[in-house]
Amino acid sequence: xxxEKATGRKTTDYEGELRKNNIPEWxxxxxxxxxxxxxxxxxxxxxxxxxxxxxxxxxQPLAYYAxxxxxxxxxxxxxxxxHGLDTARKAMKVIAAKGDNATKxxxxxYTTLELVVEMNLRGISFLNIDxxxxxxxxxxxxxxxxxxxxxxxxxxxxxxxxxIVAAREEQPYSSKEDLKYRGKVGQTLIDALAEQGCLxxxxxxxxxxxxxx
Length: 213
Known about the structure:
The protein has two domains: about 45-125, DNA polymerase, domain 1; about 125-200, Orthogonal Bundle (DNA polymerase, domain 1). The protein is about 55% helix and about 5% strand. The protein has eleven helices and three strands; from the N terminus they run H-H-H-H-H-H-H-H-E-E-E-H-H-H. It has helices spanning about 5, 15-20, 25-35, 40-60, 60-70, 80, 85-100, 105-120, 160-170, 175-180, 185-195; strands spanning about 125, 140, 145. Helix 4 (about 40-60) packs across helix 5 (about 60-70) and helix 7 (about 85-100) runs antiparallel to helix 8 (about 105-120). It is elongated and about 90 Å long. The termini are far apart. One of its GO terms (molecular function) is 3'-5' exonuclease activity.
């Protein structure tokens, strides 16, 4: 605290003002060496938050990882996340080998994969995006695993993801054509979802196959 705020007058003799008010010498010396003194209450708040996070990580790991990937993770790769421990580790080695040449997205993906490896070692795995179950943006717990949201697919943004879910809640999708028109999803994204195995057995269109009846 600057002396003028406490005394109402300007001064440059900060140390003199502090000594005049019987401030301990150790505090005065600390002020001359440290640019910012971390408030004790602020420090306590951080420690309490750390304890809470640690408790969830140990006792409620599914909730912890679902929350982490929803809130903190910045980059995703469906194949690297759903295909298990070895795939994630190999991807990390590739990124690490690039060193300073790794892009920002690759660096963010490396951080994500560190958590993917950790949770796999704890026996927790991902479920791929499911056209009938996935949330727009949140990683959710499903059958003891963590279900990927639509935004985990590269190029599929929040607005489109929310539109997909909103239309699905009105009525389940009956075909890729239905997804395209009611979900307002472009053909490129539909092809990407299909390529990643996110559309299940969803047929191309509404036409009946007479030979299947």
